[in-house]
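Re: the multi-chain job from yesterday

Posting the exact lines I submitted so nobody has to dig through the queue logs.
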Amino acid sequence: GAGVSQSPSNKVTEKGKDVELRCDPISGHTALYWYRQRLGQGLEFLIYFQGNSAPDKSGLPSDRFSAERTGESVSTLTIQRTQQEDSAVYLCASSLEGAGGVPGKRETQYFGPGTRLLVL
Amino acid sequence: GQNIDQPTEMTATEGAIVQINCTYQTSGFNGLFWYQQHAGEAPTFLSYNVLDGLEEKGRFSSFLSRSKGYSYLLLKELQMKDSASYLCAVASGYSTLTFGKGTMLLVSP
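And the result, structure tokens for all chains:
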């Protein structure tokens, strides 16, 4: 497909279980981002990948959250021992280039449809 | 630190013009983005400004003043489908975009 895809689209889990969320960025995009958006709230930055490395993971809320990216493509966000406060929409975005480059539209982020996570 | 401010809510009527303001204080500036987000959907890219002035794209225009740390999104000939949240985001050249909390625009008949 031409856009960013995420799976699953919806996930219901029980408190204490681990969940894994997947993001497939636009082909050729070197940068990938994860955000969290609680109901009625703004976007909360979680982590940024440039290639397979993560120069900025300052937004991860706790050590229960981790993410990896392989092959400069697919990324997975893992939440261990989920809590009810983790319930949110998790959005992935990709851009042609990452931060710090020459200013221009190549930093434009394109978002996937999100994964709606509900922790019971 | 990074700080982006925009109004929480705005209302307007169909066919009217509305201006959504955004002010920012960031360490470094590599451009300012506007996104539209309909309820329950992902944000979609609207516009990008890196130089001072007005960028026009159909019914939507975006303005930037770097010296004032100020931008606005202008929506003309409002339609019901324009009811959405509008997000201002700044690229500071350090890390990812910093997003404002969004302005919820409600267009009424």
